[in-house]
Design goal:
single chain; 321 residues; alpha/beta; 40% helix; 10% strand
């Protein structure tokens, strides 16, 4: 006769054997479902053990997630001050202005007040304006409190090769042409519009997705845990910041296009919630002041949208992603 199987008590620590069992069952999940290999009863028992072990592994993984993810836009660039500079200076080599240097310095002071003595792992765009911004930020941190890595995937959207050799299209004329292109983008849609010889927002979205995969693998490395780096800082560009939030919180295209761009040297803090209704999820702090609607379009609904990854889930992506 069939006898019920009692739930095994949770173990305080996941053994290597249990981890291996969990991996094997996960790989052969189709065969274990409904007990097709070992019989219905044994398959059910193994599935229960797999769920218990997976839950314990997940709880251990939660402890490796950083306390904060800080999205940072570069300080004021030379192109922000005078867009005609792009007619003779490649976009990746555009630096920051004197005002931008002061903005980055103040930004470093603000971030230092936020993280206090906690360590920060910075990922930085390879564009000159982002690197100069990071240099000013880390000048406010003592050595040993931060680590920085250049990451090409978080670079600016490619607007095409604007260094035109046409002598009739330089300086103010080029700036006027760029203004015309941006108006066309606004009419077409900022997510799907592709700049001539450049990228669309959708292309940048794909870069964000692959970067997130790397970021989550970094979180799971033994040398990355919160005992080393409680904070992750991404020094990047406005379009990347908005698309990162879109990918993480699973916004629609319409919700992404509802957001206005971030100002120079603005930052957004995604903080892990360890208590309350959104426990183990990341919540954007001060979103009312940092996330502004684009020309009156309705903002994304934060109460209805769930974060892209919660800390209760596996560190890997769900199969439908």
């Amino acid at each position: 006769s069939h006898t019920s199987l009692s739930r095994p008590p949770p173990s305080p620590k996941v053994s290597i054997a249990d981890r291996k069992l969990c991996e094997d069952i996960d790989k052969q999940g189709r065969r274990f479902r409904m007990g097709r290999v070992c019989g219905r009863r044994r398959g059910w028992a193994m599935s229960r053990k797999w769920l218990r072990v997976a839950k314990e592994i997940g709880s251990e993984t939660n402890k490796m997630r950083p306390k904060r993810i800080i999205l940072i836009r570069h300080a004021e660039s030379q192109a922000n001050e005078d867009e005609s500079i792009l007619s003779h200076v490649p976009d990746p080599k555009v630096g920051i202005t004197g005002r931008g240097t002061r903005q980055a310095h103040d930004l470093g002071e603000a971030l230092k007040d936020i993280v206090q003595d906690e360590k920060v792992f910075f990922h930085c765009s390879p564009y000159m304006r982002a690197k100069r911004t990071l240099e000013e930020i880390v000048s406010r941190f003592p050595k040993g409190q931060y680590l920085a890595r250049e990451e090409p995937r978080i670079r600016e959207q490619d607007f095409g090769n604007l260094q035109c050799h046409d002598p009739h299209l330089t300086g103010n004329k080029l700036a006027a042409k760029m203004s015309e292109i941006k108006k066309e983008r606004e009419h077409f849609g900022r997510f799907f519009y592709r700049f001539p010889n450049g990228e669309s927002g959708a292309d940048v979205y794909d870069r964000v997705s692959t970067f997130l995969e790397t970021l989550h693998r970094d979180f799971d490395k033994p040398g990355f845990g919160p005992w080393l780096y409680n904070n992750v800082g991404l020094v990047s560009h406005g379009i990347f910041m908005r698309l990162f939030l879109m990918r993480w919180y699973r916004w629609s295209v319409e919700e992404f296009e509802a957001l206005e761009n971030f100002k120079n040297a603005e930052y957004v803090i995604m903080e892990r919630q360890d208590n309350g209704p959104h426990r183990d999820q990341y919540e954007v702090l001060n979103k009312e002041s940092k996330l502004r609607p684009w020309k009156g379009i309705n903002m994304p609904s934060w109460s209805e949208q769930q974060p892209y990854v919660t800390l209760r889930q596996s560190p890997t992506y769900a199969p439908w992603d």
